[in-house]
Amino acid sequence: MATVTIGGDAFEAGASILHPKNYHASNYTDLLNLTGKIPSSSESSISLGIWDGNGFVVKTLNANSNWGIVNKIVSFFNGIYLFMRYGFSLVKMEGFVDETVNKFLKYYEGVETRPVFESVEEMLKWAGLFNLTGKSLKEELVDGVKLAPLLIKELVTVITRINYGQSANISGLAGAVSLAGSGGGLWAVEGGNWQMAAGTD
Fold this sequence. Notes:
By secondary structure, the chain is mainly alpha-helical. The chain is built from eight helices and six strands; from the N terminus they run ββαβββααααααβα.
């Protein structure tokens, strides 16, 4: 949650977004009387563009209408376009992310059902996450989830590069976390997430 100052303006160097199921961060934000930030309309845009360095390989329709029905129609056609390009791989990727997040949620269980762990390996095995540490994200998505190579090349790699500056050959566990950080409902603390680390009760 460090910040860097460039040209007199402060920017977050890490942990700039939080997952909606990160209940520790949510509860801690409430404890410190901080306010969750709702994404602006540009951050919650229903459009998508993927640039390969020469041109857009993917470009969906854009809509910024005050009429909800218009946005719904555009979103519908964008969904059809993406399905035609990637098929059921988008659904499979979403299922993989949901499954991984649900495994992380096991750590929120009370001490009566969650053991005390003597090592990180033991902790990851208990939640069913350890196998992801022994392979790359690309290997898991190709061999395990059976995603289309085009989706991995065009979308998964974009997500891992934006979030961690890495390719899809990143560790399977880190890559799954990166994909989880691309979904809906992401939030931040108004004024910067650094306030959670700096806050005192």
